Amino acid sequence: MSVPAPAPRPAAPNSRPLRIAVPIAVLLALVPLVLPPYSAILLAYGLVMAIGALGFNLLLGYTGLLSFGHSAYFGVGAYAVALMVKYLKITSMELFLVGAVVASVLITALFGVVCVRYTRIFFGILTLALSQVLWSLAFKFFWVTGGTDGLRVPTPSLFGGLVTGAGDKIAFMSHAYYYYVLIMFCACVALMWVIVNSPFGMALQAIRDNETRAEFVGVRIWRYRWVAFLVSGVFTGLAGALWVPLNGLTTPDIMHWTFSGEIVFMTVLGGFRSFAGPIIGAVVFNYLKTYAVGYTVYWQLLLGAVLVALVLSLPTGIVGTASRLVARFQGRS
Amino acid sequence: MSLLVTKDLVKWFGDTHAVDHVNFTVKENEVLALIGSNGAGKTTLVNLISGLFRPDGGQILFRDADVTHQSVHGRIKAGIARSFQLVNLFDQLTALDNVALTIFSREGKIANLAALAASDSAVWDEAHDVLRRFGLDAKARTLAGGVSQGERKLLDVAVAFALRPKLLFLDEPTSGVSTREKAPIMDTVTSIVRSTGISATIIEHDMDVVFSYSDRIVAMHQGTILADGTPDEIRRNETVTTTLIGTRETR
Predict the structure, then answer these.
(1) Which residues on neighbouring strands pair with residue B203, listed in sequence order?
(2) Which residue of chain B is at minimal alpha-carbon distance from A6?
(3) Is the CB of A12 less than 8 angstroms away from the CB of B121?
(4) How many beta carbons lie within 10 A of that of residue A212, not counting itself?
(5) Which of B24, B86, B79, B28 has its CA nearest to residue B50?
(6) In this structure, are residues B6 and B23 in contact, taking their beta carbons and an 8 Å threshold?
(7) Looking at chain B, which residue has its C-alpha nearest residue A197?
(8) Are A198 and B116 in contact (CB under 8 A)?
(9) How far is the C-alpha of A313 from the C-alpha of A317, rounded, in Å?
(10) In chain A, which residue's Cα lies nearest the Cα of B96?
(11) Which fold has domain B2-250?
(12) How far apart are CA A5 and CA A9, in angstroms?
């Protein structure tokens, strides 16, 4: 029996992704104008996590590698910003991003060399172990990292100092910083879209599907996995850098493996087989966690129960299930 | 003229000599059949030549260049490609994507992560052309994991063919398909091989296929070469007929 491809590759670039993305971007741009500041800030957190999950899914969904260590790269981005504030007295968000990208490149390049030679459980355990090394450094070197107290990050200046955070912090975060995050989010989504639909993205999917055959059509497996690892880590590091001004503080918690678990979870929740899955999963997970924390002191129990129910009822994730329902509806009509 | 030469090629698995001092040649523009019972060393020999296994001794010369210690990637660049006994495809990519990916790789464009693959119309046109030659154009948009076994076998060869090799190894291209499908598959594959002037080495158990489609036959037994000759010579070779073929093919 022939199985039709879910999304046949067009012979030439088409405008369908843009037709979907532009209205969504416009709606997201309207959020600070129509919703209370708290909602905009909450959504900003979701968009930041979506960038991280998007990076994570380059490894899981496209390369077939399950990392349990992405908290490390998120933390590297966040701590790079915090250390730039502490030691260099920098407040420019653009410099923060440059610093975070440089730090993420260095760490992921190094970790990648160790990890990409392995697959499956060995890869997962290695990434987890390496992330725990970074966590313990952040935890123990308190004179540098602030230990469990963490490091504070003041409101940054944006666009080369054109927009500063002087005044009402809530207003700044829910408007100027929200738009900054939105611009970065749109740029990251566009960039990741190009990457996964590039010849390189096809090579990653080939490695995921059949490593041996990929090698026999000329794909250099370790090299391509390493580049994917690097790109994935940098996206997550960038997310960490955008997250820390929003949060105002970074602690070793964000480097702990349990935070890696959250990144895995939000990606699986949204659906790791689709491009949009990690984005939807990150935003939904962020809302679920926030409301669970606000609802009960036993929020982990509530969140866990809700997530188990969601995963069991939506095995292909939110986006996978939605796609199936749409296809079924279109088949009937 | 010899395209490929192996000199005293050796591969051991523990105490077993899977390939035992094998001197094997493939000439230009020929379809060679490699026959032998299970465990004779045919697939191991192909694995050694294609780079999947490292030899324990001996030398592999391809177009007079020593490729014994070259990587798989290096051998592909030199012009050696292969298909697999158990079909090895990218099942979650379409048939068209399977071939296009190979062309991107061959053209050195696979490392490009800053441009949409869909924008390279030359690659997609060639991928369509390859599928058309193999009679698979109707399955271009179908996931490789969803086409029939016979089509998967052809697609497996098409992917290797898209590398534009000078020597193509086909490991049991008709295994697992119905008797009715074997002749069309072999007709398609051998006509493409002959029309493009490349050499092909086919590992095959079906003697009807072997004698119908090959120019030369090499018979292996217990890691060594038992006989080497034209189909008629092999048919008349008593050692081969008693050891490998039995009486049916000698009629």
Answers:
(1) B34, B171
(2) B143
(3) yes
(4) 11
(5) B79
(6) yes
(7) B116
(8) yes
(9) 9
(10) A9
(11) Rossmann fold (3.40.50)
(12) 9
Residue A320 maps to a domain:
no
- Digit-coded pLDDT (tens) for A116-139: 888 889 989 999 999 999 999 988
Secondary structure (3-state) at B31? strand
Task: Report if residue A213 sits inside a domain.
Answer: yes
* In chain B, where the domains are located: 2-250
Amino acid of residue B191: S
Cβ atoms of B5 and B61 closer than 8 Å: yes
Cα–Cα distance, B181 to A52 (Å, whole number) = 49
For tokens 């000759």, name the residue: B229
Alpha helices in B64-106 (DSSP H): 72-78, 95-106
Whole-angstrom distance, CA of residue A323 vs CA of residue A5: 13
* ipTM over the 0.90 cut-off: no
Give the CA distances from residue A283 to residues A84, A307, B26, B64, in Å, rounded to whole numbers and listed in that order: 28, 14, 60, 60
User: Is A15 in the B-facing interface, judged by CB distances under 8 Å?
Assistant: no
β-sheet bridge partners, residue B27? B2
pLDDT tens-digit series, residues B194-228: 888 899 999 988 888 888 888 899 988 888 888 88
* Residues of chain B numbered 207-246 and touching chain A (CB < 8 Å): none
pLDDT score recorded for residue B236: 84
A173 Cβ neighbours under 8 A, 6+ residues apart:
A37, A40, A41, A44, A155, A246
Which residues have CB under 8 Å from A293's CB, separation 6+?
Answer: A299
Chain A: give the shortest CA distance to residue B243, in Å: 34
Domain span at residue A61 reads 21-253
How distant is the Cα of A17 from the closest Cα of chain B, in angstroms? 13
- Is residue A321 a part of any domain in this protein? no
Cα angle A325-A331-A332, degrees, rounded to a multiple of 5: 95
| CB contact residues (below 8 A), chain B span 52-71, against chain A | 52
Q: What is the DSSP string of A273-305?
A: TSSSHHHHHHHHHHHHHHHHHHH-TTHHHHHHH
Judged against a pLDDT cut of 90, whether residue A316 lies above it is answered with no
A283 found inside a domain: no
> How many domains are contained in chain A?
1
- Across the interface, whether the CB atoms of A194 and B114 are under 8 A apart is answered yes
A303/chain B closest Cα distance in angstroms = 33
